Amino acid sequence: MTDTEVEFSPAAAPLAERLLPAALEIIARYPEGRSRSALLPLLHLVQTEEGHVSPNGVAFCAEVLGINKAQVGAVATFYTMYKRRPTGEYLVSVCTNTLCNVLGGQEVYDQLSEHLGVGHDETTGDGRITLEHAECLAACDYAPVVTVNYDFAIDEATPASAVELVDQLRDGRRPTPSRGARICSLKEMQTQLAGFADPREGAVADGLAGAPTLRGVTLAQEHGVAVPNFNLDTPITKTKPSPREESKGTVTTVVDKVKSAVSTVTPGHAGKTTRAGDVKDPQTRTAEQRNPDASTPDKTGTAEAKKPVASNPAEAAGTASNEPAGDGKPAGDTARTEEAK
């Protein structure tokens, strides 16, 4: 795709003017015919400019990929990392899921909400902070945790440490986080999420896992707990068959069904065909076994059914005069037949 192949609408044109080269670079990462897979990073790319996915951003993504806006909107509204309204320079997320909550995560969130004067997914008047509670931030070993623009900022957070953090951010400072990369703006983070390198010093962090993460391993080493005869280089053995192999013999695959239904020519029967097997529907086969020539009514179904037991007076009044159906005839047919005579 080149920039001359797409004629952008007035809604998408301003973003296309600024983002098209980067968008084409993202699309080029994917195989030909699979450009739609680029939608996720493209939505992050849009947020590098506007801080959220605006209607113009939806239009730009749709037009550069050749899909409709409804398809883009379906993705943008599904994932919480795509913001549908303007978001602050710093997105402060507090984990309030089970473990973080037990260890004080809700108190941290409540104190921040009161201090900032905003609730969930709301932004302070100065445009600096957007506050949100998160269901899980994947750091139970450091609970409760607070992130800023998806990077860990405070481990084992307290209401006081969280308030100190947001005050520094509102003053234009970027405090050093407990671990991980240096704090950046939300738009700078979207650049990384779109798949582009962030040139800032310390933009990407690296290092060994912390003590809380390694606590289980440390305890095992201290107490001599180990798996007998364990060798790190031992290849992982196959402990169970693949789903396809597991289904063999119990659930016939589509290919097997096709093969069994095809007529085959057997040796010694040139010119004659034989069926490869019984391919009847199980329900059809059962019905034929019960009544091979359909000469008598089926007595195994509702023919012997009794009147239903009413569960309340209204139901009893409505069904009192209804006879149960039998022999495949609708209820009341026998009465009408007798009247006709």
Series of H and E elements: HHHHEHHEEEEHHHHHHHH
User: Cα-atom Rg, whole angstroms?
Assistant: 33 Å
Largest sheet: 5 strands, mixed
- Terminal Cα separation, in Å? 80 Å
Quaternary organization: single chain
GO molecular function: oxidoreductase activity
Protein name: NADH-quinone oxidoreductase subunit NuoE
Family: Belongs to the complex I 24 kDa subunit family.
Keywords: 2Fe-2S, Iron, Iron-sulfur, Metal-binding, Oxidoreductase
Descriptive tags:
14 helices, five-stranded mixed beta sheet, alpha+beta, 341 residues, oxidoreductase activity, 38% helix
Topology overview:
Blueprint: H1 13-27, H2 39-50, H3 55-65, H4 69-76, E1 90-95, H5 98-102, H6 105-116, E2 122-123, E3 129-134, E4 146-148, E5 151-154, H7 159-170, H8 186-193, H9 215-222, H10 243-247, H11 254-261, H12 282-290, H13 313-319, H14 333-340
Parallel strand pairs: 1-3
Antiparallel strand pairs: 1-4, 2-3, 4-5
Helix pairs in contact: 1-2, 1-3, 2-3, 2-8, 3-4, 6-7
